[in-house]
Amino acid sequence: MPHVQKPHRRPVRLQAAVFCTRPGFSDSSASSRPPAAPSSSSSRFKCLTFETVKQLAATGASVVFTARDEAKAKQVREEIIKETGNTGVEYLVCNLASLASVRACADAVKERWSGINVLINNAGVLPQERQESEDGIELNLAVNFLAPFLLTNLLLPLLKANAPARVINVSSSMHTEGDIDFADLEGKNHFDKYKAYAQSKLALLLFTRKLARDLKGTGVTANALHPGVVGTEMTMRNVRGMNPVTAFVFKRTLISPAQGAETSVYLATSPEVAEVSGAYFDKKKAVPASPLADDKESAEKLWDIAETNVMLYK
Q: Domains, the chain, ranges and CATH?
């Protein structure tokens, strides 16, 4: 269950995989401010991540985001600076389907910034058929869960050193359709794309809640969220596989990427949630998650498997 930490006197600054810092939440010197950072997969890049970065930048925050494609990242950076007037927007190249790339990204953060205050893990893939990452791991599991798991753990020292700090993981309401199939975690025996996606988002939520328990008393909070059913490129690819009537009805329920980014930005910036940890949010409200998200035994087992997969302590 969510727990409440004692209030801190220091203001909250931002750091996500968007990395950013916000006036009123950070030191007055722009050069001393650590960034906030959402990590992203480029299929959602100009959607959820783009809007999250833009909304954070619009507050005056210094923001660092990640992307696989440097040319696209440069173009998006220029577009956000033009729209917001905020020149404190930067990017790091990172392929979340590569553990080596995630490690290199974390190393780059440590080299350039002495602290992180908000880490937003906004990774998301939903491949149409079973695929594997560069490390030979099923792609949903690799990108949606293991990459955030590794990046968060590698950056925890910077978060703890700059508390109060926040970890924000973008999950999905589809986690309620999933369970953790420890006997076939990577779908080698039977693969269903929606079940694999749901499992990865449940895994992310189990990780979030265990992380919140482990971080109690450190000044670092960890929360997860459902952004809504957003009209991203990834969503629209799956709509194309529906029958016309279902697709028509489904598309009418979609929200815009700007709306989808609102809860991430709320959790990154609002003083209302400064002391909340281990919660699951939808539309900027804490809501019940699947009962499976509270399974501490599964969370411990999954953590051990993740540590082995990412070679956390190598």
A: 3-309 (3.40.50.720)
C-alpha to C-alpha distance for 255 and 225, rounded to whole angstroms: 15
The catalytic position among 197, 266, 280, 313 is 197
Q: Is 89 in a helix, a strand, or coil? A: strand
Residue 8 token pair: 């801190």
**Backbone dihedral region of 47: left (phi > 0), alpha (psi from -120 to 50 degrees) or beta?**
alpha
pLDDT by residue (tens digit) across 4-18?
Answer: 443 332 222 333 355
Residues 98-105: contacts with CB within 8 Å, 24+ apart?
98/133, 98/134, 98/135, 99/133, 99/134, 99/135, 99/146, 99/147, 99/150, 99/310, 99/311, 100/134, 102/147, 102/150, 102/151, 102/154, 103/150, 103/154, 105/17, 105/39, 105/66, 105/151
Judged by average pLDDT, the poorest of 108-117, 137-146, 236-245 is 236-245
**Which 3 state secondary structure label does DSSP give 160?**
helix
The answer to whether residue 194 is catalytic is: no
| Global model pTM greater than 0.85 | no
